[in-house]
Amino acid sequence: MNKLKRKMSNQNNPGGLTNTEDDELTLPRASINKMIKELVPSVRIANEARELILNCCTEFIHLLSSEANEICNQLHKKTINAEHVLMALEKLGFGDYQTEAEAVLKDCKAVAAKRRRQSTRLENLGIPEEELLRQQQELFAKARQEQAFAEQQQWEQLQAAAQQAQASALPNNDDDYE
């Protein structure tokens, strides 16, 4: 771990973060706890051990991203891409994880492609946006008319009930003439 910390402290500060800001960058505890529960559901893990796992994960991400940044800079690129991260894994001695990382990358690309297809579904309807807007306005107008009609009927029913209650509350004068 000291070797990792030395490597991190010797590297340039690419994000422009001060040490206090850098220390505050950690993974969400809830996410780490969820992963731990999914991986070892029948094992209880002490809070101290959870904190150590959190710190190790954060340190690993810092180390990997710093190495990927170095590779990116060496290749005169401005954006770290997946290939840079895979190269960093290999360079740091984590080549055994490369196959799994590539599988995760493939899954992420598939999810992103699916999202893009879903976001263009409206565009694929073949109906111009103006026509869709016009149809929407017609539906709103129809709904307002139906609502107004329902409110009118309800008001008339209340009026009829009030008149009926008023009529039954009046004294019946027919009995006076008998």
Write a short abstract of this structure.
The protein has 178 residues and is mainly α. The protein is 71% helix and 0% strand. The protein has helices at residues 2-10, 19-23, 29-39, 47-74, 82-91, 98-119, 129-169.
For the sheet with most strands, the description reads: none
Stretches where pLDDT is under 50 for at least 5 consecutive residues are: 1-17
State the distance separating the first and last CA atoms. Answer: 110 Å
Count every beta strand, where a strand is a DSSP E run of 2 or more residues. 0
Q: Give the helix proportion (percent range).
A: over 70%
By DSSP (H or I, 4+ residues per run), the number of helices equals 7
Range of strand content: under 5%
Secondary-structure element pattern, one letter each:
HHHHHHH
Q: What is the SS-derived class?
A: mainly alpha
Mean pLDDT: 84
- CA radius of gyration is 34 Å
Inertia-based shape: elongated
Question: What does this protein look like?
Answer:
This protein has 178 residues and is mainly alpha-helical. Helix content is 71%, strand content 0%. It contains seven helices and no strands. Helix 4 crosses helix 5 and helix 5 runs antiparallel to helix 6. The longest helix is centred in the C-terminal third of the chain and has 41 residues. The N terminus is likely disordered.
